[in-house]
Specification:
The longest helix has 43 residues, at 158-200. By secondary structure, the protein is mainly α. It folds into 2 domains: 8-156, no CATH class; 158-252, no CATH class. Helix 3 runs parallel beside helix 6 (121-127). The protein is built from 10 helices and no strands. The protein is elongated and about 85 Å long.
Length: 252
């Protein structure tokens, strides 16, 4: 883990170590030496995760509702950026947690511990094709790595680390499950809503009203009647869409 030059092989080796033997990795991880290495590591993990997310999204896997075209391709750029920003924010939060637990390490050490935990992100991108499972595993695995770092790097008592990160894990699993369920409900609802709009031919409903000023009172009245009829069909379709989405969510 040298700060002098970028070495993809080193990044890959570090990722393998974090995944296969986190205790040994964190026990021997340098706690100082600058931000370059961990920052590069996060960016590479973000790029790989972004690529996998894009591939799965284009074929309708992983992301609730999927992403299409340019939106999916944007993940290749946006995810690494989000990872880099998130790594600094996450490190700041966990730095405070470690301080409260009695650690005497500085922010750079906290950032390094947090940054290398991103090694699991590409694996999570693959597992994400299975609803809910990835979120739960990511939370459990991520906090396990921070638990290991607490003991091996910050010299915090194992019992204290177990209690603190056990509670945090439980909270995040619960919140994450609810958030994913809401996201998938929105995706289901969006599909049904689009179908309802298509069946009711909403664009045509409004298009027919564009030239009302040129119509006779009888023609205008007829068009308004057709519009209200279409609006009723759309409302009914939306109601059915919501019911279907809720039913699918319950079945999941």
């Amino acid at each position: 883990m040298s700060d002098s030059t970028f070495n993809l092989g080193t990044v890959i080796d570090d990722a393998k170590k974090v995944i296969t033997n986190p205790v040994d990795f964190y026990r021997n991880m340098p706690t100082e030496g600058g931000y370059a290495d961990p920052l590069i590591f996060v960016a590479v993990m973000g790029a790989v995760t972004g690529l996998l997310t894009t591939i799965f999204s284009l074929v309708g896997l992983g992301v609730p509702g999927g992403m299409i075209g340019g939106f999916a391709l944007m993940a290749i750029i946006m995810i690494p950026i989000a990872f880099v920003i998130g790594s600094f924010i996450g490190a700041a939060i966990i730095f405070v947690v470690w301080k409260l637990m009695g650690s005497d390490k500085d922010y750079e050490t906290a950032y390094r511990c947090t940054a290398y935990s991103f090694a699991i992100s590409p694996v999570m991108a693959i597992i994400s094709i299975i609803p809910y499972l990835a979120g739960i595993i990511k939370t459990l695995w991520g906090f396990f790595l921070l638990y290991v770092a607490s003991i091996e790097v910050h010299q915090i008592k194992a019992q204290t680390a177990k209690i603190v990160f056990g509670v945090l894990t439980a909270i995040f699993v619960f919140v994450g499950f609810g958030a994913e369920r809401s996201a998938r409900n929105i995706a289901h609802w969006g599909d049904r809503a689009e179908k309802a709009m298509s069946n009711a031919n909403v664009p045509e409903m409004f298009k027919d009203l564009e030239n009302m000023e040129d119509m006779t009172p009888e023609e205008a009245g007829k068009q308004v009647g057709e519009f209200m009829k279409g609006l009723g069909a759309f409302s009914k379709g939306m109601e059915e869409a919501i019911k279907e989405a809720e039913k699918e969510a319950e079945e999941e």
